[in-house]
Amino acid sequence: MLPGDGASGTEPHVSAPGGPLHVLIVDADPTQAASLEERLAGEGYAVDSRRVADREALEDVLRSRVWDIVIADDQVPGLDVLDGLAVLRELAPDTPCIVVSGAVGEDAAVEAMRADAQDFVVKGRWARLGPAVAREVAEARHRREQRASLERSELRFRQVVENMGGGLIITDLGDLVVYANPRLAEMVGRALDELQGRVAYEVLVPPDRWHEQRARNRDRALGRAEQYETEFLRADGERRWVQINAAPSLDSEGRVVGTIAGIVDVTDRRRALQSVRELNVELEATAAAYRQLANFSARIEQIHDIDALIDAGLQDLVRQLRFDLGVYYVIQDDICHVTRHWGEIPLKLQALHHQEMRVGQGLVGTVAATGEGRMIPDYRQWPGALPGYVAAGLRTQLSLPVRRHGATVGVISLGTFGHLIELDESDRMVARSFVTRLENALERVETIHELTITREQTFRALGVALEYRDYETKGHTDRVVERALAFGRAVALERSELQALQWGAYLHDLGKIAIPDDILLKPGRLTPEEFAVIRNHTVYGFEMTRGIPFLPDATRSLVRNHHERWNGEGYPDGLRGEAIPLMARMFSLVDVYDALVSDRPYKQAWTHPAAVEEIRSQAGKQFDPELTEVFLELIAKAPDRA
Question: Helix or strand or coil: residue 487?
Fold first, then answer.
């Protein structure tokens, strides 16, 4: 909603392309206003206009609705044009204004443009009016759409951070808490507002460990990252062991401004090694949900018809969640209309199936009214149950809202008949993720914006989260990111290319979240069949990033192709030579070097000279020979920090 909208309780409206043009005319002369309307009509517009001639009327009409454009005469008695432009900027900053003047002077035009007028038309030169209106209306509509897309994107990313399985904390250089996610507050048994603005170690760490935290904070102020275990002190006095993966938080200029840390409770792992697998239960449920969502995502990419998309979604949800029937309702004029369904309609339900349901009536109407999804384990026991549906045998019901531009426009309802089912968190995630994809498909508007530092920190948190599954690869994410950036600077990548390379380094192993533990964590040699499963992680990761609108193609190509080989014998696409994307070729060198010089379950770390010799031997086979020389020169200068 734009500033000033909704002050009168009315619903804001902006004309759609091809609809009427809503014009606010600021002019004391009704005849001239009528003439402007006629000129716009002559340009092919269906004009819906309102004329005002004083400040009070201008303020009232700007608060009452949203206008496509304002056309203001600069000679209105009692309303200086600059004063009027100030009112417009305050109440409707996205609405363009064209100033009409009888003066033919440069000073008048400059004065109007400095006051934020979008254009200046001299009376008598009306040929400029129509094109100016068309241009400004289109640009204003584009600005509104861009802002709405950014707000949706930011919301999605905030939801990812706030629903992470582990704790996340961001502090400034004084160790004051700037942000903590709900999971962290839960881990320490405190409310979020008890953490915000406090010295982190004073509320999270036992007093006997404060001196350790002060020393670590000094190290991170110098740009050092680390992974360590320490004790947390819960509000109830219980001491719990946690693993912290902390790194400096940087501003857009690369300066250290604080710390970002991912936090996982490892108390049970310290007590017994077998409990490591228990810590991954939630992650495994998430992996299963991602696998289901990846399969669905691959299907809907080929569907461009909304009805077919809804049918495909209902079919997948009914099958995967073990329901009997899925129905899609569209909300119009406070009525929920059945438009699509998948599954067999019981005989007793057929008479009710296509009846209109008012918003607020039954579970579907309740979800339509509140905009919040609901699960009813046993419909017969629900106080709001409708007798006809009880008689038809409805038992378990799940209803989820479908939103567009912030408003609930539809409801997906799934039901069983004659039997009950239970949904675990993985099932619920599949349902929520499908609805999110459906909302994106309905809107069809996704604008790519440069990620803020919060997004970059989120990418890092996702990369670090993967390390929690395999404790033998701790620190891998930070090392390869650092070396990749150094490599990128060595080959003179531009800033945007460095950003794409950095994101790819964070996300390169994202697809491993979908690989079963018995394969990913296997200490011995993999069978050919198991290695084939491992190879799929590049495709899984590529699919998982498909729904992130602002990711550069170079980032997604790195995720997919960083295991390709220069001689064409890599995977998943068997690309050869320069057909392999540049950043994938670069990161392949970084990734292999780190793997060689790091301890793994199946090998000891190689020495730096041995790793260099191996990489040199693979130039022209596994690696781009020219990039290999650059990389070897780089690590020769600083093998521990290249």
Answer: helix
Question: Structure tokens of 245?
Answer: 């993966």
Would you call the peptide bond into 581 cis, given omega within 30 degrees of 0 as the criterion? Answer: no
Helices (H), 371-494: 387-391, 425-443, 453-467, 476-490
CB 230 within 8 A of CB 266: no
pLDDT tens, position by position, 335-354: 999 988 888 888 888 878 77
- Report how far residue 426's alpha carbon sits from residue 152's, in angstroms, rounded to the nearest whole number: 24
Helical axes 537-544 vs 553-561, angle rounded to 10°: 160
3-state secondary structure of 232: strand
Alpha helices in 27-101 (DSSP H): 30-42, 55-64, 81-91
31: which 2 tokens? 């005849």
What is the 3 state secondary structure string of 303-361? CCCHHHHHHHHHHHHHHHHCCCEEEEEEEECCEEEEEEEEECCCHHHHHHHCCCEECCC
CB 256, CB 249: distance < 8 Å: yes
Question: First CA to last CA across the chain, in angstroms?
Answer: 49
List all residues 6 or more positions away from 142 whose beta carbon is below 8 Å from its beta carbon. none
- Rounded CA-CA distance 25/214 in Å is 63
> In this prediction, what percent of the chain has a pLDDT beyond 90?
27
**Residue 342 CB-half CA count within 13 A:** 19
Separation CA 414–CA 410 (nearest Å): 13
Phi/psi zone of residue 399: left (φ > 0), alpha (ψ -120 to 50 degrees), beta? Answer: beta
Looking at the chain, the number of H-run helices and the number of E-run strands are 27, 16
Residue type, 550: F
Of 471, 427, 433, 423, residue with least CA distance to 280 = 471
Residue-wise DSSP of 80-138: -HHHHHHHHHHH-TTS-EEEEES---HHHHHHHHHTT-SEEEETT-GGGHHHHHHHHHH
| Tens-place pLDDT, residues 298-316 | 666 667 677 887 888 888 8
Give the count of beta carbons closer than 10 Å to the beta carbon of residue 38: 10
> Does the structure show a pLDDT above 50 at 3?
no
Kindly list the distances between the CA atom of residue 238 and the CA atoms of 183, 195, 206, 233, 322, in Å, as whole numbers in the listed order. 17, 17, 10, 6, 41
Measured between alpha carbons, how far is 201 from 176 in angstroms, rounded to an integer? Answer: 9
Per DSSP, 603 falls in state B
CA distance 364 to 410: 9
- The model carries a pTM of 0.34
Q: Confirm if 55 and 87 have CB atoms less than 8 A apart.
A: yes
Q: Which residues of 74-99 are buried (b: 16+ CB within 10 A; e: fewer)?
A: bbbeebebeebbebbeebbebbbbbb
Q: Give alpha helix (H) positions in 444-597.
A: 453-467, 476-490, 495-507, 517-520, 528-535, 537-544, 553-561, 582-596
Dihedral sign, Cα of residue 209, residue 239, residue 273, residue 228: negative
44 Cβ contact partners less than 8 Å away, ≥ 6 residues apart: none
From CA 410, how far away is CA 190, in angstroms rounded? 37
Task: Give kind and range of the element (H or E) at residue 634.
Answer: helix 625-637
Sequence-ordered list of residues with C-beta below 8 angstroms from that of 542, at least 6 positions apart, any chain: 511, 556, 559, 560
Instruction: Of 120-134, 140-154, 248-262, give the lowest mean pLDDT range.
Output: 140-154
User: What's the rounded Cα separation, in Å, for the pair 275 and 51?
Assistant: 73
